[in-house]
Amino acid sequence: MQYFRLILLCAALIALAGCTSSLGNSFGGQGNVGIVDSSERTHHDTKLTGTDFVQFAEKVTDKMLRSPLISSWEGKRPKVVVGHLLNNTMDENLRIADIHDRIQEMLMASGVMRVMDASSTSFDYVMKNTITSTEQGNSSTGEKLANYTLMLKMYTIEGELVGQWSDDLVLAKGKRSVF
């Protein structure tokens, strides 16, 4: 009887080991929900986490700070108003203030510009920032792909666009396993 239970237990474990989530060919064969092209963090959905949006903001802001426009400012320290981040995503609960604050922190820490309040009447540039998202999915399998784009645009006080920086963050959610 105990031998029979052991065989049943082994068979059950083998069956469970074969039941894994996968995204199949539609999303490149990835397993768990996660940031596409990165195996550092996993997700349970296609929504940005706090860590995601902070790192996303850092990546785009760093791209801006390394650009030829900002490099040409060395020693000048122009005054910049960082406009509020516009949320054009499908996630109304996205913590926009945290993303905006992280962008401002990085700009101030860089030392290449002076960050001014939006109510300032004296500035050289103004930044307009937007985060957008698109989603694709299959409701019958539960597969989902969400693409977030963070865009930073810099304008002169006359309204001339002098710089634009963006990046994409793609999150995928695999289909559910059925036992």
TrEMBL record:
InterPro entries on file: LpoB
Signal peptide (UniProt feature, chain positions): 1-17
Keywords tagged on the record: Signal
Top-rank taxon, per record: Bacteria
Xref: Pfam families: LpoB
Name of the molecule in the record: Lipoprotein
Native organism: Desulfovibrio subterraneus
Source taxonomy: Bacteria, Pseudomonadati, Thermodesulfobacteriota, Desulfovibrionia, Desulfovibrionales
